[in-house]
Amino acid sequence: MSGSAGQEWARHWRYEALPGLDLLHAQYVSHTFPRHSHEGYLLATVLRGVEDMRVQGGGLHVLPGSVMTLNPEEPHAARSGHPDGWAYVALYPQLDTVRQIADEITTLRGTPGFSGPVADDPYAARLLWRTYEAADGGNALAADILLRSAVTRLLTRNGTPLPARAPKAAGRRAAARARALLEAQMTEPPSLELLAREVGASPYALLRAFKAEYGMPPHTWLTDARVRRAQLLLAQGHPPAQVASDVGFTDQPHLNRHFTRIVGVPPGAYRKERAGPL
Hints:
four-stranded antiparallel sheet; alpha+beta
């Protein structure tokens, strides 16, 4: 583990030998993650310090030896819970990876998930750290085995099928339509009033339904969606200035600010780890 208390540093990268696996090793002191979500899972463990995490059920203090297990599209926010900050590693396996492991070693049916956002499990925490070390050292065989071991343990102890989506009531249908419209009009999104009119709801009803469905209001969700799309474009090698325009940010500093807050590293560093030097 590198770094020292009181300093901020981060590396967010992809290990090509394990397709679809992103990794983060970081220490943050003043950095605050706003409410956001991920398309895949988040498996993370604190190495030093304390992380304050906020999920739908409230706030949690995450200490060394604990493991964070967040399901796809689960909104959360985070900040330091200690004056010296917190250091941690995070792995972001995709749905197909976790589903394959669940099919092999559990009786879970449907989409596999985890029953709570934080588990006190020092052994699983060590597995996650050793997975990161193996990937960082280029040992694909060890990284693959350790990742599967960590996911297996967490699913065995805390696995649960994610609830099937019930047929959409009117409010949920309006929220889903609004989300689709925001995705399609990311660079020039409509006002809440126009968006509500388009989906056949009042602005207040749409705002309430959207927050209930996605865990955040439309403008927060849109920023998160823009950053996700920016990640894809940066990984393909597009320069940050072009990406800022393509996803609807006013300029590159605007992209830098929101991207760094949500992902934990600046766009240039993210692109460099995946697409080579600028």
